[in-house]
Amino acid sequence: MPPLDEFGLIRVWTEGRQSKEMLAKAGVTLGIGDDAAVVAGSSGQEWLFAMDTMVEEIHFRNETMSESDVGYKALAANISDIAAMGGMPKFALVSVSVPPQWDSNRMKQLYDGVYMCAEKYGVAVIGGDTTSAPRHLVVSVTVIGSIEAGKAIRRSGAKAGQFVFLTGPTGLSAGGLHGLLKKPADEGGPDSVPVPPHRLVQAHQRPSPSVKAGRILLEQGWGASLNDVSDGVASEAWEIAEASHVKLVLKETHLPLSGELVAYARDNGIHPLDWVLYGGEDYVLLGTADKRHELAMKEHFRAEGIPLFIIGEVEAGQPEVILETSAGASKPIHKRGYNHFPKGYNE
Ligand SMILES: Nc1ncnc2c1ncn2[C@@H]1O[C@H](COP(=O)(O)OP(=O)(O)OP(=O)(O)O)[C@@H](O)[C@H]1O
Ligand SMILES: Cc1ncc(C[n+]2csc(CCOP(=O)(O)O)c2C)c(N)n1
Ligand SMILES: [Mg+2]
Ligand SMILES: [Mg+2]
Ligand SMILES: [Mg+2]
């Protein structure tokens, strides 16, 4: 068998292991494959379950995130998966595997971040688990959300003729990370990297999951398909294209490019589109909606003070993602983004 990437591995490990009947009997409306699982609840409501893990050296380092940033972002990234279904986050379970250098005081600061995020989004922290770890800190969070029964917005709802939207700018987090990873020795040297703007660093350390946008999309019945941007716009667009069996055509001229990001990328010899399309950890929502809702959606989001960028269209065809460049050319967008096993993992 050829080496598999992260997504292939999940499939090989889990696909076909439990029958549709078993899952239906257990009350599972939607199992593995979306941002959160959907499970039967009571009186017109369903439960959403999602979990995400952060590992020291992979997701953060001393120089990129403070202790409280790590706690805050671990919960925020999970809340984002509930937002990506149109749901309301309610409860969290937090598991930590703690190596010797993470003393109790550092862990207390990590939990300051967890509770700050929990407070902001009205999430009750109701449990977790604690173990030692040999070298690196691991934080794993499970978030449980609630949603109106039958209304969860899946990755599979995109249809030809719809438009593609984003509920916030992307690429900022990748730009911030780039700046945070610069070596102090570089500073002032010939390869010195200019300090990244505060907004980019903030986007990396304290992302804002789009809960409100997700709720509007669900309550108004506007969201046809939805995904949150953890691995990058390209990767998430591919997930919608594949789950919905459609083609997504993104327009370069419509992609949100802030002056700050463009300037910082250019100063560092990076094409800003690389961050916007492939950066990841943006935790905004990427989705599709029917054209007839476009005006109302724009007005509603503007009135609520939430960004909404219309970035492309859905077309019929084999699953793929295309970029219409500002020069008028059509360029395939590769299924590239953050992947935990980029070189593949041998079975
Ligand atoms: N080890 C695993 N065992 C069972 N299911 C898994 C496992 N890893 C992931 N999944 C499921 O696979 C699907 C895709 O997971 P993935 O982590 O890519 O989505 P995500 O959480 O939205 O993205 P990200 O982790 O990049 O934020 C989800 O339904 C998830 O619950
Ligand atoms: C030190 C350091 N190096 C690289 C990165 C970039 N990064 C790590 S995981 C990920 C995707 C989301 O994770 P997941 O798919 O597990 O949710 C990205 C873009 C970082 N944050 N910190
Ligand atoms: Mg997700
Ligand atoms: Mg995940
Ligand atoms: Mg990922």
Give a written overview of the molecule:
The chain has helices at 6-14, 20-25, 67-83, 104-121, 172-180, 198-205, 211-219, 233-244, 259-267, 272-278, 294-304; strands at 28-30, 37-40, 45-55, 88-98, 124-132, 138-148, 163-166, 225-228, 247-251, 285-289, 309-315, 320-324, 330-332. The chain contains 11 helices and 13 strands. The chain is of the alpha+beta class. The protein has 2 domains: 6-148, 60s Ribosomal Protein L30, Chain: A; 155-332, Phosphoribosyl-aminoimidazole Synthetase, Chain A, domain 2 (Alpha-Beta Complex), CATH 3.90.650.10. The site of one magnesium ion has 3 residues, from loops.
Write the layout of secondary structure elements.
Layout: H1 6-14, H2 20-25, E1 28-30, E2 37-40, E3 45-55, H3 67-83, E4 88-98, H4 104-121, E5 124-132, E6 138-148, E7 163-166, H5 172-180, H6 198-205, H7 211-219, E8 225-228, H8 233-244, E9 247-251, H9 259-267, H10 272-278, E10 285-289, H11 294-304, E11 309-315, E12 320-324, E13 330-332
Parallel strand pairs: 4-5, 9-12
Antiparallel strand pairs: 1-2, 2-3, 3-6, 4-6, 7-10, 7-11, 8-10, 9-11, 12-13
Helix pairs in contact: 3-4, 3-7, 5-6
The chain binds adenosine-5'-triphosphate, thiamin phosphate and magnesium ion (3 copies).
N/C terminus separation: 7 Å
Determine the CATH superfamily of the largest domain: PurM-like C-terminal domain
Shape by Cα distribution: globular
Bound molecules: adenosine-5'-triphosphate, thiamin phosphate, magnesium ion
- What is the succession of H and E elements? HHEEEHEHEEEHHHEHEHHEHEEE
How many helices? The count is 11
Across the major sheet, the strand order is 8-10-7-11-9-12-13
- CATH class call of the largest domain: Alpha Beta
| Uncertain stretches | none
Number of strands: 13
Main sheet attributes: strand count, strand direction, barrel closure? 7 strands, mixed
